[in-house]
Automatic annotation (TrEMBL), chain A:
<feature type="transmembrane region" description="Helical">
    <location>
        <begin position="308"/>
        <end position="327"/>
    </location>
</feature>
<protein>
    <submittedName>
        <fullName>Iron ABC transporter permease</fullName>
    </submittedName>
</protein>
<keyword id="KW-1133">Transmembrane helix</keyword>
<feature type="transmembrane region" description="Helical">
    <location>
        <begin position="280"/>
        <end position="302"/>
    </location>
</feature>
<keyword id="KW-1003">Cell membrane</keyword>
<dbReference type="GO" id="GO:0022857">
    <property type="term" value="F:transmembrane transporter activity"/>
</dbReference>
<feature type="transmembrane region" description="Helical">
    <location>
        <begin position="240"/>
        <end position="268"/>
    </location>
</feature>
<feature type="transmembrane region" description="Helical">
    <location>
        <begin position="143"/>
        <end position="164"/>
    </location>
</feature>
<feature type="transmembrane region" description="Helical">
    <location>
        <begin position="116"/>
        <end position="136"/>
    </location>
</feature>
Automatic annotation (TrEMBL), chain B:
<keyword id="KW-0067">ATP-binding</keyword>
<dbReference type="InterPro" id="IPR003593">
    <property type="entry name" value="AAA+_ATPase"/>
</dbReference>
<dbReference type="InterPro" id="IPR027417">
    <property type="entry name" value="P-loop_NTPase"/>
</dbReference>
<keyword id="KW-0813">Transport</keyword>
<dbReference type="GO" id="GO:0005524">
    <property type="term" value="F:ATP binding"/>
</dbReference>
<protein>
    <submittedName>
        <fullName>ABC transporter ATP-binding protein</fullName>
    </submittedName>
</protein>
<keyword id="KW-0547">Nucleotide-binding</keyword>
<dbReference type="GO" id="GO:0016887">
    <property type="term" value="F:ATP hydrolysis activity"/>
</dbReference>
<dbReference type="Pfam" id="PF00005">
    <property type="entry name" value="ABC_tran"/>
</dbReference>
């Protein structure tokens, strides 16, 4: 019964993701003849249509799926692991680390070397943050993890602010502010290749924890007694932390900090999947991908002149969902 | 070699000795009561016996295999552990939470067998009527029974339960002790931490009395629960009286 409902939900979400993915290839600012452009692209001809399709729309659509999916899945995995519906990928401080890494690339002028420097800097920042986090937490449990994440993200935010503060040119500050808000505009296959390995590996790691997250529903000791390892290199905590860190770090490195997706998607899907963490993982990946594809389409429709950053849009759309949840929860209590 | 045996296990946590070298065990078909005042080390000994906490010295042997080196899945299928209530349950349905007890078999899931085990466990814990209720809406006692049902659903040959009747009303406490008795009669080895000396005396085959981090006495209830031992360990004078009101057995049940 549950299985059939889950499969239906995954099929619907998956179908919607495919449809929107296709739409975002076909439709854009400049009108191109899609068929010929496809043919040119496959044949390796550098026509205008092929360039727009292959170098602008395709990487952007791929990133919308992988970044949105990774953020949604990370949110679901973290909320399950921490047994806290308010957890989101930001709590580990890894997004902050990625942002700091990217900002330092701006600050030091390494930007000039290559377009790959910015995402690589972000990735390095994210990986450094994970190492610090794992070292800080050691054998500690969920509470230690939350505290370490809070400490790490506030430190990264302070250093980011310092870099902004000391930035020699106001233009560079503006660029950074823009980048930190999150965007998928003008991303190329360089960005895709930089982010894809970490994103995929991270997502796979998170998906391996599905049953373990269920087992945690009644506490650490119950999970342990059911044969799951909590701590240690192959334990649930390490897999969740490393998985979210790799995925989110790789995403922030190329797309900036896109907020609220990881927080909101599991909330939106729980009424459909129920509260069992394992049943929420795959739908959250698809839901996140769908949300970011929709947001990216909206950015393109709404933008006249100055483009609205996708991170701003997801935050604007995500916050009301929370207001609504608060009202619903209050009604449920009274 | 059958049975679950802890031999000279000792443990210190944060520089404090919480368990002096102690030995205890349970044989198949036996119901053992682990009793003692608060802080005596009952839960610690139980957690060590369940393999949740490796001892600093000594070893725990389950069916002839040292727990320290036994496979996790084998241990999870052979020994079911019911810890004290750790966290409020999520709003998952009662039956789904009880079904977590089948996770040790996840490598080879058998739907019919798992479903039957969950239904049996729900029935034993008197929860069939609540199986579709979100666990977050259960009362304290119902929650305790749900957690017990989760442990029963493993259908392991050994069950170690930490204060499983502490939150229960007299009828449900008796019913749960009956469940343990039936499990033992069916060949399982059961260790239960209890505070109710009456239940311990009436239902257990053997009592392990703990005091200040070590086993003070163990044996048949009549031999362990002496006035002198209870005075020494609990610091209470006991009276054995006839006219006290004692919930004795479930209405309609026969001896």
């Amino acid at each position: 019964m549950n299985d059939r409902r889950d499969r239906t939900l995954v099929a619907i979400l998956g179908g919607a993701v495919l449809a929107l993915f296709a739409l975002s290839l076909v439709w854009g600012e400049s009108a191109i003849a899609f068929g010929p452009a496809c043919a040119d692209l496959l044949a390796g001809r550098h026509s205008a249509g092929a360039v727009i399709l292959g170098e602008l729309r395709l990487p952007r659509a791929i990133l919308a799926v992988t970044v949105g999916g990774a953020l949604g899945l990370s949110g679901a995995a973290l909320q399950g692991y921490l047994r806290n519906p308010l957890a989101d990928p930001g709590v580990l401080g890894v997004s902050g680390g990625a942002a700091l890494g990217a900002v330092l690339v701006f600050y030091t002028g390494l930007m000039g070397l290559s377009v790959a420097m910015l995402p690589l800097g972000g990735l390095a920042g994210a990986l450094l943050a994970v190492l610090l986090l794992m070292g800080l937490v050691g054998q500690g449990g969920a509470l230690v993890l939350l505290l370490a994440g809070a400490a790490l993200s506030s430190f990264a935010a302070a250093l980011t602010a310092l870099a902004l503060n000391l930035m020699p040119s106001p233009y560079a500050s503006f660029e950074i502010m823009h980048w930190v808000m999150g965007s998928l505009t003008d991303r190329t296959f360089t960005h895709v290749w930089i982010s894809l390995p970490g994103t995929l590996l991270g997502c796979l790691l998170m998906l391996t924890t599905a049953r373990a997250l269920d087992a945690l529903a009644l506490g650490d000791e119950v999970a342990e007694s059911l044969g799951f390892r909590l701590r240690g290199p192959a334990g649930i905590q390490a897999r969740v932390v490393l998985g979210t860190a790799l995925a989110v770090g790789s995403c922030v490195a190329v797309a900036g900090a896109i907020g609220f997706v990881g927080l909101v998607i599991p909330h939106l899907l729980r009424p459909l999947t129920g509260h069992q963490p394992s049943r929420l993982l795959l739908p959250s990946f698809l839901g996140g991908a769908l949300l970011l594809l929709v947001a990216d389409a909206a950015v393109r429709v709404l933008s006249t002149g100055t483009e609205i950053q996708i991170g701003v849009l997801t935050a604007l759309a995500g916050a009301p969902v929370f207001f609504f949840r608060v009202l619903k929860m209050r009604r449920g209590m009274s | 070699m059958t049975g679950l045996v802890a031999r000279d296990v000792a443990l210190s946590l944060g520089g404090r000795v919480v368990l002096h070298p102690s030995s205890a065990g349970v044989a198949p078909g036996e119901l053992v009561g682990l009793i003692g005042p608060n802080g005596a080390g009952k839960s610690t000994l139980l957690r060590v016996m369940a393999g949740m906490q490796p001892p600093d010295q000594g070893q725990v042997v389950l069916e002839g295999r040292p727990l320290a080196t036994a496979g996790r899945t084998w241990r999870a299928r052979t020994l079911s552990f019911l810890p004290q209530d750790e966290v409020p349950p999520p709003p998952m349905h009662v039956a789904d939470l009880v079904a977590l007890g089948r996770l040790p078999y996840r490598a080879h899931p058998d739907r019919a067998r798992d479903g039957a085990a969950v239904t049996r466990a729900l029935a034993e814990a008197d929860l069939l009527a609540l199986r579709d209720r979100p666990a977050s809406r259960l009362s304290g006692g119902e929650r305790a029974r749900m957690r017990l049902a989760r442990a029963l659903a493993v259908e392991a040959p050994y069950l170690l339960a930490d204060e499983p009747v502490a939150a229960l009303d007299p009828a449900h406490a008796l019913a749960v002790m009956d469940v343990f008795r039936r499990l033992a009669a069916g060949g399982a080895g059961v260790v239960v931490v209890l505070h109710d000396l009456m239940l311990a005396a009436r239902f257990c085959d053997r009592i392990v009395l703990m005091h200040a981090g070590q086993v003070a006495a163990q044996g048949r209830p009549a031999d362990v629960l002496t006035d002198a031992a209870l005075r020494a360990v609990y610091g209470v004078e006991v009276r054995r009286i006839e006219d006290a009101v004692i919930p004795w057995r479930l209405a309609g049940a026969t001896e």
